[in-house]
Amino acid sequence: MLNLSRCRILAIGKTRKPWIQEGLKLYLKRLPALSIIELRDSDIDKESISIQTSIKKGELLIALTEDGAKLSSLSFSKFLQELNSKRIVFVLGGPNGLSPQIKTIAHHSLSLSSLTFPHEIARLLLVEQIYRASTIIQGSSYHRA
Q1: Whole-number Å distance between alpha carbons of 48 and 16
Q2: Residues 22-46, buried b or exposed e (16+ Cβ, 10 A)?
Q3: In the chain, N or C terminus with fewer CB closer than 10 Å?
Q4: Predicted local distance difference test score (pLDDT) of residue 1
Q5: 0.85 exceeded by the pTM?
Q6: How far is CA 74 from CA 61, 71, 88, in A?
Q7: What is the reported pLDDT for 145?
Q8: Residue ranges in the chain whose pLDDT is less than 70
Q9: Helices 119-138 and 73-82, interaxial angle, to 10°?
Q10: For residue 73, with 0-12 CB atoms within 10 Å meaning exposed, 13-18 middle and 19 or more buried, which class applies?
Q11: Could you tell me which of 137, 132, 119, 113 has the C-alpha nearest to residue 31?
Q12: DSSP for 55-111?
């Protein structure tokens, strides 16, 4: 079982598109232990400071970047299972991405796709993939390989 009470998401900016808000609401209802903390968007340096001050001691930082490792859903579920005993914080940048400093201090860097997505859609994709990973670990039929 995936311990989502030890997992959270830091995201730059607010989700403004209603259809993305609805999608997030659906998955967060299925993942009640997962939290998304929205940080104020501004310039990339101020966002970097905000991210760094929001990371709790002992959390494993996973940055979502376009140049990060590309995992299949099955590999992502195994990755999360291996980290299950650790406190995890995923970080999603705003429209300008993440600062080089955040990328440097990240313990892991992941990419959701080779395609480029608006940051709000990336947030929804990440939450769906966390949900998918939890169902793979549970042996649910949600994921059809």
Answers
A1: 22
A2: ebbeebeeebeebebeebebeebee
A3: C
A4: 67
A5: yes
A6: 21, 8, 18
A7: 65
A8: 1, 145
A9: 70
A10: middle
A11: 132
A12: SPTTEEEEEEEEEEEE--HHHHHHHHHHTTTSEEEEEE-BTTB--HHHHHH-SEEEE
Rounded-to-integer distance, Cα 41 and Cα 67, Å:
22
Query: Who contacts 63 (Cβ-Cβ below 8 Å, separation ≥6)?
Result: 91, 98, 102, 103, 106, 108, 109, 110
Q: What pLDDT is attached to residue 54? A: 97
Tell me what pLDDT residue 2 has.
76
SS3 (DSSP) at 43: coil
Residue pair 32/62 in contact (Cβ under 8 Å)? The answer is no
Token look-up 């300008």 returns: 96
